[in-house]
Structure formats: C-alpha cells, structure tokens
Write a structure and sequence with these properties.
This protein is mainly alpha-helical. It contains 11 helices and 5 strands. The protein has a single domain, classed as Muramoyl-pentapeptide Carboxypeptidase, domain 2, CATH 3.30.1380. The relative contact order is 0.14. Bound molecules: zinc ion (ZN).
C-alpha cells in the first residue's frame, strides 16, 4: 500500500501546489518540492476538478487512494472487531473510549477478541499516514494514537448519548440551547481516537476500501476536531437529514445562522478536501 500511495501522493502534491490552497507553512513546504511546473490554465482545470470532487463527495474519483487487495482481509477484520467493541461498551461510552482501554477490553472479552498484530499494524498505518495522501488537507489536533479523553474534563449531555468538553464547548452549547430550546439537539460531541477509527473505517468499508472518498465526509483518525471540542448540532426529529445539505433548510440552521453561531469548520467549497458541513460548529476559532 505504501508504494501505491507514494505515487498518489506525488500526483496530489502536484495538484495542490498548483492550487495554492492557503495551507499551513509546513504543508506548503512539501507542495513546492518536485519537478512540477504549473500554468494558469491547469490551475483552473484543477480547481474545477477539485470542486467537482467535493460536490460529488460520495462518489469515487480517479485520483482516489484505495486500500490494496493484500490488506483488505486485515482491514475487514479490524472493522468487525471495532464494531463488536462498540456493541460491548455501548454507543455512548464508545464516544470517549480511549485507544489503550479499547485494546484491553477487546483482550478481556472473548466476544470482541484481542486485536491481532496485523490489525494493530494496520491501525497504526492509518493513524500515522499523512491525511494529504488521501486528499484530506485539514490539521491534525490529536498527534498520537494514545491521546486520551479524560473523564474529568467531559460532561455527558442528557438524552443525547454524547459528551462535551467542560472548558471549551459546554458554554456555547448551553447558549445555543437557551436560544433554541428543545428544537436543537446535539448530534455528535467528543469523539475519541477509537471512535473516529470506527466512523472513518466504517465509511471506508461502505466505500469498498476507498480512503479518499471516506475522508471527504469524515476526518481520518487524529484529524477530527471532535477530539478537540467541535460538535455537531441538528434539528430534533430531522434524523439523518441533519447530516445532509438539507439541514440548511431547517429552522434550527436559520436561527443559528442569524445568531452568529455557525462558525463552520468546513464551509462551502472549502479547500480542505472536505464536503460542506453546515452542522459542524467550530469551537477553537483560531485553528
Ligand atoms: Zn462534525
């Protein structure tokens, strides 16, 4: 897989160098390497291609990075084990389950079973891979696979099955609740590294191993700001539609917008390689 991705990475680097996407300096340093020379013409083409990909985020694209055939069985068994682990601890607890604790639980409960060496290697490979190789251009707030959510720092939000950080997020959430009452719900709060693994790999699994396609909807593990205070809101009773573009048609969206709460992490046509997410509230405005 590494060799395959290296090639993809070079192609991707070329595209981004031409786009001049306003990346962090350390990322830009990488994009100027290599023999590629860009003209204004192909910049336009590449931007068009990029926007097409982002607007059709749920469809495969010719540049997408796919999990290689040799790794597929390991990938599949990892996803199944993560799903069994979530069933064991329950959906709510799994949101804040730390990686080392998850491994210990899997080892101790035969209905989950210990992660094999190959599965652990696979998880490490995914975690420490540069998200840019998939086309994900955002920052990485959680640097280590063992980064922890500390129970003393979080608070469970009643009836939501989700948690928020006491320091960073709860005040904003409470203000939103004060303004909008029961109409607004917390649809996703803190996500531990383990939780983001399950979400990202589930999406990759649905997409037949397409890591790039998955990363257009879900940040790869470590890259999600749900690990760092961001959260998602929705309209009560709107179900899965809260995670689609039609969320912008709800009263909750309109009110939040008027009140100035919608400082979005992934605005429309962002250059981070991520679909438009009008429901995702950015907590740390400086990152
Ligand atoms: Zn989100």
């Amino acid at each position: 897989m590494v060799k395959h991705m290296k090639r993809r990475y070079l192609l991707k680097t070329m595209g981004l160098g031409c786009l001049g996407l306003g990346l962090a300096p350390e990322l830009l340093a990488k994009t100027v390497e290599g023999p590629f020379v860009c003209t204004d013409e192909n910049t336009d083409e590449r931007l068009k291609d990029y926007l097409h990909k982002i607007h059709n985020f749920n469809e495969p694209h010719e540049d997408d990075v796919i999990i290689d055939y040799e790794l597929y069985t390991i990938f599949e068994s990892t996803v199944m084990r993560l799903r069994r682990l979530q069933r064991l601890v329950g959906h709510g607890n799994f949101n804040i389950l730390n990686f080392p604790d998850g491994l210990a639980l899997a080892r101790n409960y035969s209905k989950v079973g210990e992660f094999t060496k190959a599965e652990l290697d696979f998880l490490e490979l995914v975690f420490y891979e540069d998200g840019q190789r998939y086309g994900f251009m955002g920052q990485k707030p959680l640097k280590e696979i063992t980064d922890q959510v500390k129970k003393k720092d979080v608070i469970k939000i009643p009836r939501s099955g989700n948690y928020l950080y006491k320091e960073r997020s709860i005040e904003i959430y409470q203000n939103i609740k004060k303004e909008l009452g029961d109409k607004v719900i917390l649809t996703s709060g803190i996500r531990s590294v383990m939780k983001q693994f399950l979400l990202f790999l589930n999406k990759t699994y649905e997409s037949k191993g397409n890591l790039s396609l998955a990363s257009r909807s879900l940040a790869p593990p470590g890259y999600s700001f749900h690990g760092n205070g961001d959260f998602d809101v929705g309209q009560a009773g709107y179900g899965k539609l809260n995670f689609t573009g039609s969320f912008t048609e709800t009263e909750v969206y309109k009110r939040l917008s008027e009140l100035g709460y919608l400082k979005l992490r992934y605005p429309e046509d962002n250059k981070l390689g991520v679909r438009y997410e009008p429901w995702h509230i950015k907590i740390n405005a400086d990152v």
